[in-house]
């Protein structure tokens, strides 16, 4: 069977992860280009997940610094400053972690969400079917009825002031992962004078539901996997299910379609067991 060429794979990832020191990002405009070229990326590097991140593209392949004055933390200002600009889609998406998605790619993610075009009804269906918990329902209804709210006001309006922090934060994460709400700005509120402002997705990106309506689930999964492999070069099925939350069956079915189109190859790894899937450009035949 065809084998991964580690030199080619490492060269590929060095480029897509933006690792060479001479290539480091140094401006918001470069950050936008970085996201747009990749389709989606993490904001921070996530342990156990191979995926480019804005932090790594700016600061290099090193852990996120604890010190607030680290030069790499310029990314924080870029992210906050862009929340209301609608230049990309930012929210806690993949594995519930901060994800940056290009506006061209966002409809493909949205097409796989539990949203069908009616923000006033979709969440109720999800709640009745047990896919949305009570706290998430209350948070969503608070935004639906009152418009954009900062975290403190949102918690109060959602009648979750006495709830555990974990319950409220879990609701925010669940709603973001399903493309129901997203942060659209920062308010000087709370003890730290820093609080995200949240809004329901169709109000901030009114064209997104209609853009996604034209995309089938199969098309969406194929597009996202094609982008994913363009980023990482090679991966196993378990990497895909871990990142996207898809079942093995769904992941393998999508992979097979891309393999049938000669966009990917089933390969072996020179030092790791199991079947791998890779771009034709990172293998040795």
List key phrases describing it.
285 residues, three-stranded antiparallel beta sheet, 14% strand
Structural class: alpha+beta
Q: What is the CA–CA distance across the termini?
A: 8 Å
Order of helices and strands: EHHEHHEEHHHEHHEEHHHEHHEEE
Secondary structure tally: strands: 11
Helix content: 40-55%
What global shape is seen?
Answer: globular
Which stretches are low in confidence, meaning pLDDT under 50 for 5 or more residues running?
A: none
Radius of gyration: 20 Å
**What strand order characterises the main sheet?**
2-4-3
Tally of individual helices: 14
What does this entry look like structurally?
The protein is α+β, with helices and mostly antiparallel strands. 45% of the residues lie in helices and 14% in strands. It has helices spanning 6-16, 28-38, 54-59, 74-82, 106-110, 122-128, 134-146, 151-157, 165-177, 201-204, 208-213, 217-232, 237-244, 248-260, and strands spanning 3-4, 40-42, 89-92, 98-101, 149-150, 181-187, 195-200, 234-235, 265-268, 275-278, 283-284. The strands form four sheets. Strands 2-4-3 form a three-stranded antiparallel beta sheet. It has a three-stranded antiparallel beta sheet with strand order 5-7-6. It has a three-stranded antiparallel beta sheet with strand order 8-10-9. β9 (265-268) and β10 form a beta hairpin.
Q: What is the strand and helix layout of this fold?
A:
Layout: E1 3-4, H1 6-16, H2 28-38, E2 40-42, H3 54-59, H4 74-82, E3 89-92, E4 98-101, H5 106-110, H6 122-128, H7 134-146, E5 149-150, H8 151-157, H9 165-177, E6 181-187, E7 195-200, H10 201-204, H11 208-213, H12 217-232, E8 234-235, H13 237-244, H14 248-260, E9 265-268, E10 275-278, E11 283-284
Antiparallel strand pairs: 1-11, 2-4, 3-4, 5-7, 6-7, 8-10, 9-10
Helix pairs in contact: 7-9, 12-14, 13-14
